[in-house]
Amino acid sequence: MSESIRENTVLQNIGVHWRDYYELCKPRVVALLVFTAIIGMFLATPGMVPLTPLIFGSLGIGLASASAAAINQVVDQKVDADMRRTSHRPIPSGHLTNRQALGFAFIIGALGMAILIYYVNVLTAVLTFMSLVGYAVIYTLYLKRATPQNIVIGGAAGAAPPVLGWTAVTGTIDPNSLLLFLIIFAWTPPHFWALAIHRRDEYAKVDIPMLPVTHGVEYTRLHALLYTIILVAVTMLPFVTGMSGLFYLVGALILGGIFLYYAIRMQSGKDERIAIKTFGYSIVYLMLLFTVLLVDHYI
Hints:
The protein is an all-alpha fold and 299 residues long. It has helices spanning 3-16, 18-24, 27-43, 51-75, 77-82, 98-120, 122-146, 150-158, 161-170, 175-198, 200-205, 211-214, 217-234, 237-240, 246-268, 274-297. It is built from 16 helices and no strands.
């Protein structure tokens, strides 16, 4: 088969299954990661972000994140098939094969790396690749099945995008960008543990050692509360260090107070829906917190 015919076959395959490839990328997760990366870009400069790192940095980081998500779905396909929340995904539903998914993941991952190397900078590409490996390999292949602290340790990969965005603009790793990393790192455990509490029976069914499966729901609720307190404390650091001002402080306290309210309500266990409500708010919380950071940066 000639090279041109092979390329046409790949394009036709993607055209037929474009919705499945789109879902393979976990678009909502990738959108949140790219959003925090873009905020990191804006916080890295006092003025407007140059268009080259803004466009190509966002594109490269997004493609790498999508590649990691696709690899995650290949590795987790058997687990996904047994969980109601994930059984509709492209691979367990039979819409895509392993070969199609891995080929797609390789193509978009390589494209993302090339874009970052040639249009942004090598440091951003290296850090992005490390994040991809951290999520797709270290977390998905090992940590997820090895320890109930999988989310705590593996959260480092998901916390990297603001640092990647900052580095895309400056070419350096700035201490302030590490504060953004720390915020997401502290946010990850209560965010995922709330979901794990709600889906504990499904995680137990597929033998994934999430904290509510190995240590019980009460233990997980307590740790979710403790990490939420840590999160609220960590979100004060941008103000304490002078990175952000009063507008951010007020916004962070209000948003953090609401998160604490949800975490405290989870302790009673009276409302079976409170865990999934907490999970939902945690996503809104992170988006609003980073939006407040951005607004504060320009006022």
